[in-house]
Specification:
Two copies of one chain form a homodimer.
Chain A (H helix, E strand, L loop, with lengths): L1 H27 L11 E9 L5 H13 L9 E6 L12 E7 L2 H7 L3 H10 L3 E10 L2
Amino acid sequence: MKYQILGVVLASVISGLFGLKIGEHAAAKPAEEVAGEEVLRHVVLFKFKDDASAEDVQGVEEAFAALPGKIEEIRDFEWGTNNSPEGLDQGFTHCFFLTFHSEEDRATYLPHPDHKLFGKALGPHLDKVLVVDYWSK
Amino acid sequence: MKYQILGVVLASVISGLFGLKIGEHAAAKPAEEVAGEEVLRHVVLFKFKDDASAEDVQGVEEAFAALPGKIEEIRDFEWGTNNSPEGLDQGFTHCFFLTFHSEEDRATYLPHPDHKLFGKALGPHLDKVLVVDYWSK
């Protein structure tokens, strides 16, 4: 009886550990990172106007970073500020890197009201923008 | 005594499972994809000369794609050709997206002999290039 109880406890612990493992794995690995699966990347570069304040720039960063919470078609999102030592940045200081799973999702994103609102808030501070999209190989 | 032995067995099983879990975790998920861990992205855009032939362009694509096999500091690599409908690409047709784990690794890559050789092969066909690097947020 003691062994049976301990067996059940052991099985429960093992099963719990496996369950935890599977759960963590699934949560940590977004579908778009599955090896070999092509995704649609959307690369956006900004150069702000010289008179844009630090607060203006931070406001744009935060507004862009809020879009994935509003537009579910954005499957992955990251961004950062340029630190290349090569001097080939043509003045661009910010890179935003979005991932879609289809051209249909991009077609939903581009005219999306929340994207348009962001564009309106961005406009007054923007000197230039560059966008390229590609299916990842 | 029985409880002590079973305790040791239980501890051993649990520890083994944790070991397995950590091992599988590391194997299944490249370090650069660990959630919340910043990586150094290196974004390279090319516009080829008008007189670059399809073979010239393909040669550059293949030569660039061969670099991760030669330079271990390149932790991740993908590329693709622009298909943005927005008309904000400024003529850039190719995006290469490299990942480093440190600025030291980038400092090894930039002057690496294989990178330099690639640059020499690329040069005659290149109209313009743009590079931004960022730590992903």
